Amino acid sequence: MSKTKTKGRSISRVKRGNQKRNKLIKKGKLKPKSHSPFVAAQAAKGAENRAKKDRAKKKNQDNGVKVRMEVEEDVEVPEEDMMDEDDALMLHRLSKGKGAAVRGDSYDEDDDLADMEEEAVKRYEERRGTGKVERALLPTKTKEGVHMKTVEVEDKEEEDSDEEGEDEEEAMDDQEDEEDGEQDDGLVLDGQGSKSVVSLLAEREEALAKLKLRVGTLASNFVEAPEERMHQLDKLVKMIDAVPVQIKGVGFKLVVTTVIELLKDIIPSYPISAHSQQDSQVMQKKETLRLQKFEGGILSSAKSVLVKLEKLIKVPHTVTTPCGLHALRSACDLLVTHPQFNYSQNILKLVVPAMDSPSAAVRSTVLSAVQQVFREDKRGESTLVAARYIRGHVKARRYRCRPEMVEAFLAVRLSYIERALADKQEEREREEAKKKTRKGREEMSKRERKRQRQLKKVEREMLEARGEEAKEVRNRNYTEVSKIIFEILFRVIKSVEEHGMNRLLPAALRCISAFCHTINVDFFDDLLKVMSDLVKGGTLKRGDELLCIKTAFDVLSGPGEFLTYDPGNFSRALFQHLPQLTAHTSAWKKDGEIGQRPVSVACAIVKKMLVARKRLVSKDLVQCFAKGMAKASLQLEDEGDQIEVLSTLDEVRRSHVATFASLLDTEEEQVPLASVAGLGIGAAKQVNSFSMWELKPMLRHSSREVALAAAKVLNSK
User: Fold this and answer.
1) According to a count of CB atoms within 10 Å of the terminal CB, is the N or C end of the chain lower?
2) Pairwise CA distance, residues 670 & 676, whole Å
3) Is 513 inside a domain boundary?
4) Considering the entire predicted model, what is its pTM?
5) Domain hosting residue 45, numbered range
6) Which residue spans within 165-309 are E strands per DSSP?
């Protein structure tokens, strides 16, 4: 049984095309033709359409259909946002349904469609002069009916299409679907065709994957046969400047790290000798030529890399960037791994000024690398070169540099100088023995003297075989290094005395304390006099003054032990600092200074003065400092500082048992003193205060460790 096909109302193709075209005009996607016959026809039928609308209104009112535009009193709606009555009527009818009972017999759908087209054309013509068009949004359905919403958008130029009908509508629908799809994916497109964030991230990941694959392939191929594939390393070096823009930072770090690691693996443990043209003209083995070519390739590749890194390291504002900091670390890494390399001096010249950089990260990177070179240098060649560069930089800045420039010297191995002095003493003894036998040598025959010369030559060769010649080179280098270091240190102290405070003073004092055993005794008097004047001048900070006192006692308790020097000025200054240790610690924490805590420095000075030099101090001096430290332990806030002070007090007690016992005995009568030698009247009053009652409250301290430390001191009697 075949189905009967219902035939709907037939509309001509031209009219259907016009309807679709007008819908696009309403949406603002097309412009009407300037001389459109549709506009003229609508203008001619204006009166007739208006009459039809009046009849429709009257009939609807008779049927009880009322259209109202209710607006709340407290909300002001702009006039341009209000809906026309005709549109409201049309939407009201559509919302009620398409039944004839609601529409009425005289209702004609074609008339309403014509009215909507006419009104759309009028609105478009009115807004054409403003350069904006309205775009219809989705309607909102309320209790009063359906409300249409529109939004004004910029009028964009579109190409007028002469095609009419279904082909034009399908093309527009496809374009609209594509735009909706792009918006759903979160893409942002403008007139210039910019890319979205998702596409940029995808491109970046793709470029990074390609770079990793390229770098990994070249590196693995090079490692398989380095001597035969130096061109692979050259390609990697050239890739440093050819990194894509999307991955500039990560790509630069990847390529530079790969090249540096490859160079660290292939650089030999000896300096590569330069080969002249004369060597190339001499007949050589194939293995020798291959080795010379390989060494030349290493030098050329390393030079190219260092030149590229130098561009980032030398400029102050680029060395602090992530790429610049990575370039600095790579250069320092190559220096630490191969300090004997041909370009190690060039790297030192490049990185040493960076220790005076404003960036803390840059300074710490270079400082750790330079100190590592100093610790591992056995011949002293790299140490001597670095010391000369530091001296040149400090002199050029007139000793106004960062402390790291001097702190680097703390890692220098000046212990070799002591061995050099012992070797010189042995050499002097041998020379004296030779002088005694000189008369016998003069009586030798010509043949005997010739034999002696041959024996000396053989002895020299034996020394070279045992490495004695390298020892002489090392001693010579470190002797020159010590001269440079003490020249800088003494100039820094002199500059403080002449021009005031210097940031290099704390580091210089620590270096003098560490290397005082290598200073000539003839310079001790002048050095101690300068430091005494600095302490009495009162121009130093609290921490720097404590360091100056500590340096003086390091000199007096070490190589200057046999000097007849009175350290009364330093003892008096330290005694005045003991009651202020709490304030010193608070200021040290607030300023964020680098170095030892003030309490640790004060305890170290007391150990040097009362324990290391116990035979040179008086009983009254020991009692004064023991009483002062007991008071300081009661005043300090930090438990660690209290334990350190009490531990130092216990060491003093073990070194001066009889003297310390009188302070713990409350029944022993104390003889009043007028003053204590080197400390004055104020110290005598403390000695006359009998027992150290300050330790009794420490037994009830909340910290178990502090209470045990105090009990250890009190139970000594």
Assistant:
1) N
2) 14
3) no
4) 0.65
5) 14-63+81-156
6) none
